What does this fold into?
Amino acid sequence: MRTLTTPRDHNPYQGLLHDALGGEGVEPEFLAMPTGSRSLNLLLVPVTLLRARLGGVRILHVHWVFGLTFAGSESSAVLRRLSQAWFAVILFWCRLIGVRVVWTAHNVLPHDRVFHDDRAARARLLRSSSHVIVHDAAVSEALADLVGGPSVLPPVTVVPHGSFIDVDAQAPATPTSAARERLALPHDRRLLLFFGRVTREKGVTDLVEAWSDLAAEHADALLVVAGRCTDPGLEAWLRDAADRLAGRLHLDLRHLPDDDLRDHLVASDVVVMPFRSVTTSGSALMAMARARAVVVPDLPPLASLPDAACLRYDRRSEHGLRDALTAACVTPADELATAGEAGRTWTAEAPGWPVAARRTAQVYRRVLEQRVPR
It folds into this structure.
């Protein structure tokens, strides 16, 4: 069975899933981007899809939609509208030529704005999908809200998120001191890390505001925010906050190569994820695979994470995040290490990529058994 995947992301998730799908008789390929122009590639998607369909491909697996926009849409309202219209054309074209769409809903709505109306675009994607994959059953209710109720939803299957333990096992062991040295971070302070795409929806402003109230009380601790920020206004706000906090907030606002991301995790003592909303968290699994305790809100999709590895807080409480950050600063190092090992053990014992691949392949086969695409 040949399938197409879009978009290609630097996250190891897709590569690990694709490798495991090979054992299920599936030959996944990324949707071809034949030119060096993002916009031209997007315009050529219908032709690319037709060629793939004539070659036997019958499934397009969509993970995210950020790759299906015209260049410059991040800063242009007109291009966001055009991108959304062209996205609708692509979905219609898939139906017309008999390519079934499977969507993995990593997020109900994107962390960064993608189209003119992301809610409407996601609702269209839902209605155009033959099947939806989620990593937690709690996501189904939020998806149903997008399209007016569960009766309108396509079939939904829970497929577990695989572990990043194997990725870490393949990487060379790095001492914490060496990682801090490479990143120019202090050796004698407790490091709290936020990593990944830096967006408001991920709660980075909530985090920095809470830290601003605490930083003076915990001079031996440092908050590190590491990851790409595509919002100029947010980046300016963060840099102003770093100036105000005078050495208690460290920013590394760039796309992090795998080695640098690994160094940030190794350098940290605890990882903070102050999400406002979330459907799953690969970043939590990545942190726990590196044996780091995690600070997380009490959101339903995060309830399955082991309590022994988490410092949880009530997201509705005015001081919930601030209290969790205080705990991250004052908890003895040996207790944080024990929490980190508990997370690593749980991650190692959780369903792995072979299970994820088997259930994904089952979804593909169910989709191909449907007589008429949704």
